[in-house]
Specification:
Length: 202
């Protein structure tokens, strides 16, 4: 399955921050990571931020790059939310499409199985793989949006190179690292010395 994921240089990553889903629809920050470089879209004018983000996504898709998302497939989080928020702010429709989108959250389940890591999965992967971007640690940090999208990028890169740490392979590795019990090898019984002398004299 990992072989079916495109090479790293053929994809780009998208992420955005918004209100808690049960509190509002405001968008605070939008990020795009391409070729290890992160571009943040933020500021006081939310509509301008969204428009710039949508324009850049379209440009990259038109150039043949494939967007990688994390669970951006809900009415309240993803394309529907972004476009409806822009319409709410401006009264004008805006186009946004993730052409040939890869939902990394779903892809990892297909590769490793549903129980490959405990929930919340993205935060757990951050801890297992020694990456910043865990909401438990840095949600209030100014660098959190950048860390979050770089986390997705790192997870993807490790996955396609078979180096991603999960709860499954971490448990397996810990078993392999257990020291083996030393078992003294069996030795042949010693010859009776008297019989040896008789045999030698003969």
């Amino acid at each position: 399955m990992t072989n079916s994921l495109p090479p790293y240089n053929k994809v780009f990553f998208v992420h955005y921050q918004c209100d808690n889903f049960n509190e509002g629809e405001r968008i605070y920050n939008m990020c795009i990571c391409h070729n290890h470089k992160v571009k943040q879209y933020d500021g006081d004018d939310e509509a301008v931020m969204i428009a710039q983000y949508c324009e850049r996504v379209k440009q990259l898709c038109d150039e043949g790059f494939i967007p990688v998302t994390w669970n951006q497939n809900r009415k309240y989080f993803g394309i529907d939310h972004i476009t409806s928020r822009y319409k709410q702010l401006t009264g004008v429709d805006i186009e946004l499409a993730y052409t040939n989108e890869i939902d990394l959250a779903s892809s990892l389940i297909e590769i490793f199985g549903d129980d490959y890591v405990t929930t919340p999965r993205l935060d757990r992967l951050a801890l297992l793989n020694g990456s910043f971007g865990s909401s438990n640690e840095s949600n209030n940090s100014r660098t959190y949006p950048t860390n979050r999208i770089l986390l997705n990028s790192k997870i993807y890169h490790k996955t396609i190179h078979n180096r991603l740490k999960t709860d499954q392979n971490t448990r397996t590795d810990s078993v392999k690292e257990q020291p083996e019990l030393y078992i003294k090898p069996l030795t042949a019984p010693k010859k009776d010395f008297t019989n040896y002398l008789i045999h030698t004299n003969k």
